[in-house]
Each structure stands twice: as structure tokens, then as C-alpha cells.
Design goal:
Glutathione S-transferase Yfyf (Class Pi), Chain A, domain 2, four-stranded parallel beta sheet, Fumarate Reductase Iron-sulfur Protein, Chain B, domain 2, binds iron/sulfur cluster, 50% helix, alpha/beta
């Protein structure tokens, strides 16, 4: 009898997905309806349970870390809806993070894929490079070139990933806004907070950072914006562990020097990564305690505001705004109730709930650029819910979700203004209307 063929290389010895965590899955399938790729394709290997089975097979040496397995891991959005849905407490977040790092270390990607991903990571974690692109992007949009290329069908002839990049061009800010390095509190001092400025956030959504500082000041916080780089969230969630570790160390040092009580973040993906620093640096004797201490001080803006008894004067804002739960907020950080609670402070504001709130919009870090087809299908599905809700605007606490949904709504012929929830609070505190759509 011939012996079975060798399974091929599996996980290496550096932090493979833990066997005891894999064994927590009892195959009940409760997570399947919450998984966007299972919802789209109905295929078991593209469900959380199927991916856990693949990880288990690789960990046991029954199968190798093959291109087929990698494809199923790459298809995962990392939205963590399965973590919320799982009654057995399976830590899929930790499992997929470790699996992605194994893939990045051990599986060579096709040259075009490798180049594309490398280009994304040469751009997005670098606010200076993003800022340098702004004049070009502005020319592309304002000169009419974009409209001409679309009319002549030239954009539709681009490779799929470049088409996705083009369609996800964020609405450009008319001017660069940035909160001052220090914003004093109004009325009284309750906390000193450090603001994480983000990368895409600070370049394309500086108005969100400025609104965050004003709202915090109105609620009795002194706001400090230390010199800082990227937090490494994109790299961490894509398995580029070493790059993420370097960025984590630098960000921790920057905020330690600021002497703040809390670190506040207004981008859900970044917030999830910052709260993970303790885990990310747990093996590093020089940084483990500092990272754990730092992570314990991190709060999403809605989380911090919900902890503070409101002292701001909120004025009526008679608007119907649909609220979209960003996955890294609702599933990654368990924050669902707080954004609704703080928006509830605005008199006359109607917060519209969306069906399938647990399902990802398809943004998911770099997912909508590397997997444009499923990302687009999920964006269209979410946009249809927003349109059917009859809301006049959309709010979400993640720049990636705002870009993805603005693009999907425009594609559906129903562009709506999009806001971070803190911009809604800021308008109410200033007795102003919501800013017009860009
Ligand atoms: S993280 Fe999201 S896409 Fe990935 S398995 Fe879980 S539910 Fe599915
Ligand atoms: S991950 Fe959780 S919900 Fe999904 S099949 Fe396993 S035990 Fe059931």
C-alpha cells in the first residue's frame, strides 16, 4: 500500500494558531449566517468553521499551507463577525491574525500580487506620501479628466484592482484641517487625552480629527496631539507582523511622552490594533508591560464619551442619519451601544438602524483593493439597505467604511453625505447643521 503524499510545508514554529484554541470550535455553525463570504458564496471553506478546519489540518500536518488554503484565508475579511456570533467563545481573531502572519512569512505570492500589496504598504501607512498625492488627485477630479476617462470607457478597461482603487478615491477635503497640538478643555478639566491622528484619517478626514478635539474639549477634556506615525493597524491585520511591531513601539513611546490619562482614537481599525498592542508585544521583555499599560488606556471616542457624564450643550439637529457599525468597532472591540448612546444626546436626531448590521460592508482594511469583487458585492448590499432606510445621511466610525459606502452609494445612483458620528455631535454642540457633502 502506498503511503499518502507529503502534506507540504505547514506552519512554522513562531506563533502558529494554537491547537487548544482551534479545538474550541464545536462545529455548531452558528457563525455561518454572520460570515460575509459564506453569505455571498455558501461554501464551507469560506466560512469561519471551514477556515478553522483548514488551520487545524495544517497544524496537524494533514494538509500543507497550500495556495488553495491561502486563497480561503485571503478571502476572509477579518471582520470578526464570527467572534461575536460564536456561542463557544472561539477566538477566531487570534487564529486568523496568526495564520495571516504565517502566510506572509512562508508563502510566496505571485509577482503581480506581491508588487501590488507592497505598493499599498508603501503608501497607506505614510501620511506624508498620501499628502503629496493630494494635488494630483485634486487635479484628476477637478480638471474633468476623471469624467472624460469614465465617459470613454477607459476606466472600465483597467485591471480589476486598479478599477477598485479608482472607484474608492475618497471625497477630497477642500482644505487640510488638523486640531492644534493642544486644545484646552471648556468649563472644567476632567481628563487629559492624547488623540491618535491616523494616516488616511489625518490626510483625507482631518475634519473628523478637528471635530473630535472640539467635542472632547466641550466634554471637559484637554486634548494633546503628539507627533506620531502610523499605528500599524493595516500591517497587523494583513499579517505583516514585524512592521506592525516597529510601528507599535514608536507610537507607544510618542504617547508615553505626552503624559495623558487616555489615548483616544476615532478610527475603528486603528482602535482595535491599539488595544491589541499588549498581545502583539507580549514576548518582548522590554516592551510587554509598556504595551499592556498603553492598551489599557486606549478608548474609542464613543467609548470615552459614554464614560463621561455629558456636560456639553447639545442643540437640536433634525436629521435622519443611518448608523453603520464598523466591524472593528462592533466585533473587534465590542462597541455597539456607546455610539448610539452618545448620538442619543442630540435632540431631534433620528438614528436609523440598518438590517444585517452584523455583516461587513466589504471595506476591511486593504480587502476592497485586493479582493475587489466580493468587496463590491458587500458594498452594494449594504448601500441597498441604506437607501431603503430612507436616511438622509450615513454615519460610521471608520474612514475605510465611509470611503467604501460613499463609493457604493454613488454607484447605486444615490450619493448620500457621510459623516463620522463625532461630526454629528460637533455640529450639535456648535448649534450648526451637518457640513454639506464634499
Ligand atoms: S472574520 Fe469575517 S469573513 Fe472571516 S471568517 Fe469571520 S465572519 Fe467570515
Ligand atoms: S466558530 Fe463557533 S459558532 Fe462557528 S462553528 Fe465553531 S463553535 Fe460554532
Amino acid at each position: 500500500m502506498s503511503s499518502p503524499p507529503p502534506a507540504g510545508p505547514g506552519f512554522d514554529a513562531h506563533h502558529p494558531p494554537e491547537r487548544r484554541l482551534l479545538a474550541d470550535c464545536v462545529h455548531c455553525g452558528f457563525c455561518l449566517p454572520a460570515c460575509p463570504t459564506y453569505v455571498l458564496w455558501g461554501s464551507e471553506p469560506d466560512s469561519p468553521r471551514g477556515r478553522i478546519d483548514l488551520m487545524t489540518g495544517i497544524a496537524e500536518g494533514a494538509i500543507g499551507l497550500s495556495s488553495t488554503a491561502v486563497e480561503h484565508f485571503d478571502n476572509c475579511l477579518g471582520c470578526l463577525a464570527c467572534v461575536t456570533a460564536c456561542p463557544s467563545g472561539v477566538q477566531y481573531d487570534r487564529l486568523i491574525e496568526r495564520t495571516r502572519a504565517q502566510v506572509e512569512r512562508n508563502v510566496p505570492r505571485a509577482p503581480a500580487d506581491r508588487l501590488f500589496r507592497a505598493a499599498l504598504f508603501q503608501l497607506f501607512p505614510h501620511p506624508g506620501r498620501l499628502r503629496a498625492l493630494l494635488p494630483l488627485l485634486r487635479f484628476y477630479e477637478m480638471s474633468g479628466l476623471r469624467a472624460v476617462l469614465a465617459r470613454r470607457g477607459l476606466i472600465a478597461r483597467l485591471p480589476e484592482r486598479l478599477q477598485a482603487m479608482e472607484s474608492l478615491l475618497p471625497p477630497l477635503p477642500s482644505r487640510m484641517e488638523m486640531p492644534p497640538r493642544r486644545t484646552p478643555p471648556q468649563k472644567m478639566l476632567r481628563l487629559r487625552v492624547g488623540l491618535v491622528a491616523g494616516c488616511v484619517q489625518r490626510v483625507f478626514f482631518g475634519d473628523v480629527n478637528a471635530a473630535t478635539a472640539r467635542v472632547l474639549a466641550a466634554e471637559g477634556c484637554e486634548v494633546i496631539v503628539p507627533d506620531q506615525g502610523c499605528c500599524g493597524a493595516l500591517e497587523l491585520h494583513a499579517g505583516r507582523e514585524n512592521d506592525a511591531i516597529g510601528r507599535a513601539r514608536r507610537l507607544i513611546a510618542a504617547f508615553e511622552g505626552a503624559g495623558v490619562d487616555r489615548v483616544v482614537v476615532n478610527a475603528a481599525g486603528c482602535g482595535a490594533a491599539l488595544k491589541d498592542y499588549g498581545e502583539l508585544l507580549a514576548d518582548d521583555p522590554r516592551w510587554a508591560r509598556r504595551a499592556a499599560r498603553f492598551s489599557a488606556t486606549v478608548r474609542d471616542i464613543s467609548e470615552l464619551l459614554a464614560e463621561l457624564t455629558p456636560i456639553g450643550d447639545y442643540h437640536p439637529l433634525a436629521r435622519r442619519v443611518a448608523y453603520h457599525d464598523a466591524c472593528h468597532l462592533q466585533h473587534g472591540q465590542g462597541i455597539r451601544q456607546q455610539p448610539r448612546a452618545v448620538l442619543g444626546r442630540v435632540p431631534s436626531l433620528e438614528v436609523v438602524e440598518l438590517p444585517e448590521a452584523e455583516i461587513c460592508c466589504g471595506s476591511a482594511g486593504i480587502y476592497n483593493l485586493v479582493k475587489p469583487a466580493p468587496a463590491r458585492a458587500l458594498g452594494d448590499r449594504k448601500a441597498a439597505h441604506v437607501i431603503a432606510s430612507g436616511a438622509e445621511a450615513l454615519a460610521s466610525a471608520n474612514p475605510g467604511c465611509l470611503i467604501q459606502l460613499a463609493s457604493a452609494l454613488a454607484r447605486a445612483g444615490h450619493p448620500l453625505p457621510t459623516y463620522h458620528p463625532v461630526q454629528v455631535l460637533d455640529a450639535s454642540l456648535r448649534a450648526a447643521d451637518l457640513a454639506p457633502a464634499r
